[in-house]
Amino acid sequence: DTAVSQTPKYLVTQMGNDKSIKCEQNLGHDTMYWYKQDSKKFLKIMFSYNNKELIINETVPNRFSPKSPDKAHLNLHINSLELGDSAVYFCASSQGDRAKVFFGSGTQLSVL
Amino acid sequence: GESVGLHLPTLSVQEGDNSIINCAYSNSASDYFIWYKQESGKGPQFIIDIRSNMDKRQGQRVTVLLNKTVKHLSLQIAATQPGDSAVYFCAENIIQGGKLIFGQGTELSVKP
Description:
- The complex is a heterodimer.
- By secondary structure, chain A is mostly beta strands.
- Chain A has no helices and 11 strands.
- In chain A, strands 2, 4, 5, 6, 9, 10 and 11 form a 7-stranded mixed β-sheet that branches. Chain A has a 4-stranded antiparallel β-sheet with strand order 1-3-8-7, with no helix packed on it.
- The N and C termini of chain A lie far apart (34 Å).
- Chain B is mostly beta strands.
- Chain B contains no helices and 11 strands.
- In chain B, β4 and β5 form a beta hairpin.
- Chain B is globular.
- The relative contact order of chain B is 0.34.
- Chain A binds chain B through residues 4, 31, 40-45, 48, 55-56, 58, 90, 92, 96-98, 100-106, and chain B through 32, 34, 36, 38, 41-46, 49, 87, 89, 93, 97-102, 104-105.
């Protein structure tokens, strides 16, 4: 009964490939996010969606395309992967944008 | 610009001692602050939050202090235990945009 679950946990791929990370939350929250954590543990927001609508896009390259089929899901598709995309990606959710944010366990992406 | 910083990147304490982790924030528009704990291989886990209309909030073995005058936030952990070893992040939520801005993180090590 994981609150925010994302798959896969590990993703190893070659440069230039396209990959997706899936996220689902069973908390009934209306806002979902993608965060990126670099090798120095710095966490930065990439996107936020509220009720399937894009709210925040933090100047992320358009190779990254989030998709929210419903408010419980927010998937992240990445085209033409680059070495610099290697990081841990966290999905998160909250009830509104002024409330505590719950995080998934992360997807470690390694681009070779 | 927007930034949340921590004074110490690492902190080592003896088991049973109290720990204090500090955080400086720069955005006067922030009105909600959260402390997260991140264990190795896991996502950030909510510890405690505080809104800007409060100076202090206590949880189980943890206390958060907010000094808006000097834009400083601290997390106090009482009777630190080995299970408290993790990276701790402060995060601020600015009024406009509703996004969490994370600090660098402090790695807490508890010596037995």
